[in-house]
Design goal:
Layout: E1 8-9, E2 15-23, E3 30-37, E4 43-50, H1 55-61, E5 64-68, H2 77-91, E6 97-101, H3 106-115, E7 118-124, E8 138-144
Antiparallel strand pairs: 1-2, 2-3, 3-4, 4-5, 6-8, 7-8
């Protein structure tokens, strides 16, 4: 399947460069891995799309994981990258996308909101879920529809 293989780019020049499809180490599901690059081709972070909807994905891990390198934080790269993955997730039949984050991670929570996701709940993690380290007892769950284009407003760095 050729969904999401060419570089994906937004109006502000953020580009997702496909790296590989492999099994996610902790969640054991097929995952597409991408490198986030800014308008100058500089790597600013990475993002991945998990292609199956297991109970661990739906409740704890989410369909999307992202990291923005420290020196590039504050530019809304993660929210923009999430939005670039929506059409491809829809192509894989994923609707809705679930994104999870630690409750104290305000930057990631804001990323979810900027991407157009809706907060659903904060749930307790069962410690027998081996993929999560102790000390993180809860996850915030956000739902993002892929059925239609998100009504999220453009983030500041996307505006021309």
């Amino acid at each position: 399947m050729n969904i999401l293989l060419p570089p994906l780019q937004d109006e502000g020049g953020l580009r997702l460069e496909y790296l590989e499809t492999a099994s996610h180490k902790g969640l054991c599901v097929p995952t597409r891995f991408y490198l986030m690059k800014d308008a100058h081709g500089v790597a600013v972070g990475d993002i991945n799309l998990r292609l199956h909807s297991t109970q661990q994905i739906l409740l704890y891990g989410g369909h999307i994981g992202y990291t923005v390198y420290p020196q590039f934080r504050g530019e809304h790269y993660a929210a923009r990258a999430v939005r670039l993955l929506i059409p491809g997730a829809r192509g894989f039949g994923i609707d809705p996308l679930w994104i999870t984050t630690d409750p104290e991670n305000t930057a990631s929570r804001r990323t979810c909101e900027l991407a157009g996701a809706v907060y659903v709940e904060t749930i307790q993690i069962l410690y027998h879920q081996a993929i999560f380290p102790e000390g993180r007892p809860c996850k915030c769950r956000y739902r993002l529809s892929t059925a239609h284009e998100s009504k999220a407003q453009k983030v500041p760095s996307e505006q021309p």
